[in-house]
């Protein structure tokens, strides 16, 4: 924990030094998926972003309780207070129970996260499992005078809240600019004001997902679950709340209002938001119908994809941009990520083929001596993963020089280089070789076969059988192996 970590806080709009409320314990809540469809690239970004945060905080020595919810009720279409529940609508279309839909897509989400090497959270609560906690939250807000009942539904009184506190502190919105809407205005219905949001909705007769409450048989508003579950598992005050930038308003703004209205102060110290994945300049998402599912990326089965892309290519693609910057999808960008990942993985694999010397040359010593802290500095500056990758690429250049015998390295420096590269690439960035799922014995055997072929080639060269020597080299090249002749013998790597 000697490293000073700076985090951009959306609430204060600046970078701040991370100081946990109860070090070494850290409480972190991240909004998870609404499980009514297959996970897509837009789901991968927050999952990977906060996976990096989770990994790094643990690496620094913190004891992290990471809570990521499953929204399986209450999230209505278009993030509104009217219309169909997203899960219930899907259930009707598929003629299934809503919980069947929720479970099926939760399983699909978990499988995709595992493929992306995203660590599971410490706790993964479901909205449907915390109805009582949400009802208690609604009652507290009612008791404090910041909500009202209307035809069996409960709405948050934004105007009244704004008179005592400020509504809009996270998003920068000013309620005074929001048109005061009376009942006569379209779409307001039961609400006193247009900006009011549902805490509890009375269920219509045909609505399947419903629970008893003091006000009506109904279901909680979408915003309630995160406030209620965050407080249950992390306490009334915790360190970090994260999610996509599209959640800043209304979801996270409403969460802040709910917390303050129920307990008198804010729950969260640092608000963190990843930016969007775009496609042709538009946010990628289910509501716009322009999304590509993660399974389609992995199989290549989508008209917008020129090929299949491995889970690690997707992870590398997302980490190649800063989490607060937009990432525009294109096949060219993904293909560049694929090549970049191969370069990094080959560099790390080649570490095992380096021959040490009594001493490192000056340039190698400098690179090795600075690498670890350079990577730490990048991570400590609000998780600048593209810079970490750039530093690792520099290390790969050094590895190439060493395998080509154009530089020298001592055993101690090689150990430091290998340890640093593996720490940041595997443990902290969460990358792994695309062939990580294959048998290590097969990989070992594969390497031995190539070495055996190169041994045959060296014998042919010694016998001045240049035709055989060249043929072996050319055929290996056709198969995707790059062979280099050095004064100490031939080296090889996959292109």
Overview of the molecule:
With 495 residues, the chain is α/β, with parallel strands linked by helices. The chain folds into three domains: 6-274, HUPs (Rossmann fold, 3-Layer(aba) Sandwich); 294-428, Isoleucyl-tRNA Synthetase, Domain 1, CATH 1.10.730; 440-494, no CATH class. Helices cover 44% and strands 14% of the residues. The protein has 15 helices and 15 strands. Helix 7 links the parallel strand 9 (238-244) and strand 10 (268-274). Helix 10 crosses helix 12 (385-403) and helix 11 (362-380) runs parallel beside helix 13 (411-428). The longest helix has 23 residues, at 440-462. The relative contact order is 0.11. The model is unreliable at 179-187 (pLDDT under 50).
Strand content: 5-15%
Structural class call reads alpha/beta
Mean pLDDT figure: 92
CATH topology value of the largest domain = Rossmann fold
Number of strands: 15
Number of helices: 15
Helical proportion, percent range:
40-55%
Shape: elongated
- The span between the termini is 40 Å
User: What order do the strands of the largest sheet run in, or round the barrel if closed?
Assistant: 4-3-9-10
Biggest beta sheet attributes:
4 strands, parallel
CATH architecture of the largest domain: 3-Layer(aba) Sandwich
- CATH superfamily (homologous) name of the largest domain: HUPs
Global Rg: 27 Å
CATH class assignment of the largest domain: Alpha Beta
Tally of separate domains: 3
Order of helices and strands: EEEHEHHHEEHEEHEHEEEHHEHHHHHHEE
Low-confidence stretches: 179-187
């Amino acid at each position: 924990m000697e490293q000073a970590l700076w985090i951009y806080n959306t609430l204060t709009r600046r970078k701040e030094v991370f100081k946990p409320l109860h070090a070494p314990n850290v409480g972190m809540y991240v909004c998870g998926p609404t499980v009514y469809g297959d996970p897509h690239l837009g789901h991968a970004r927050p999952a990977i972003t906060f996976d990096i945060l989770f990994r790094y905080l643990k690496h620094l020595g913190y004891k992290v309780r990471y809570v990521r919810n499953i929204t399986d009720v209450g999230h209505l279409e278009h993030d509104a207070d009217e219309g169909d529940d997203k899960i219930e609508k899907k259930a009707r279309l598929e003629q299934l129970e809503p919980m069947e839909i929720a479970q099926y897509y939760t399983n699909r989400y978990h499988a995709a996260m595992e493929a992306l090497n995203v660590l599971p959270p410490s706790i993964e609560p479901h909205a449907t499992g915390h109805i009582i906690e949400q009802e208690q939250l609604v009652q507290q807000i009612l008791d404090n005078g910041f909500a009202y009942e209307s035809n069996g539904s409960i709405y948050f009184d934004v105007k009244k809240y704004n008179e005592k506190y400020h509504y809009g502190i996270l998003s920068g919105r000013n309620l005074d600019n929001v048109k005061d809407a009376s009942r006569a205005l379209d779409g307001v219905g039961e609400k006193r004001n247009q900006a009011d949001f549902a805490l509890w909705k009375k269920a219509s007769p045909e609505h399947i997902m419903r629970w008893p409450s003091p006000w009506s048989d109904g279901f909680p508003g979408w915003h309630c679950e995160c406030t209620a579950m965050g407080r249950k598992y992390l306490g009334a005050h915790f360190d970090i709340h994260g999610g996509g930038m599209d959640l800043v308003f209304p979801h996270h703004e409403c969460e802040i209002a709910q917390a303050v209205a129920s307990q008198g102060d804010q729950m969260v110290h640092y608000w963190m938001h990843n930016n969007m994945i775009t496609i042709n300049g538009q946010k990628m998402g289910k509501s716009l119908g322009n999304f590509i599912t993660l399974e389609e990326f992995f199989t290549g089965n989508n008209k917008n994809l020129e090929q299949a892309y491995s889970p690690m290519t997707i992870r590398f693609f997302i980490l190649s941009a800063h989490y607060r910057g937009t990432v525009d999808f294109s096949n060219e960008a993904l293909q560049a990520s694929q090549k970049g990942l191969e370069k990094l993985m080959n560099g790390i694999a080649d570490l095992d083929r380096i021959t040490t010397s009594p001493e490192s040359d000056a340039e190698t010593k400098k690179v090795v001596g600075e690498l670890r802290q350079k990577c730490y500095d990048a991570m400590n500056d609000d998780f600048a993963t593209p810079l970490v990758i750039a530093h690792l690429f520099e290390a790969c250049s050094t590895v190439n020089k060493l395998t080509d015998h154009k530089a020298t390295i001592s055993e101690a420096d090689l150990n430091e280089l290998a340890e640093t590269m593996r720490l940041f690439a595997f443990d902290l960035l969460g990358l792994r070789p695309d062939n990580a799922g294959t048998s290590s014995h097969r990989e070992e055997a594969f390497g031995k076969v190539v070495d055996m072929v190169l041994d045959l080639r060296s014998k042919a060269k010694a016998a001045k059988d240049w035709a055989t020597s060249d043929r072996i080299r050319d055929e290996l090249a056709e198969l995707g192996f790059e062979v280099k002749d050095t004064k100490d013998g031939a080296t090889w790597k996959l292109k």
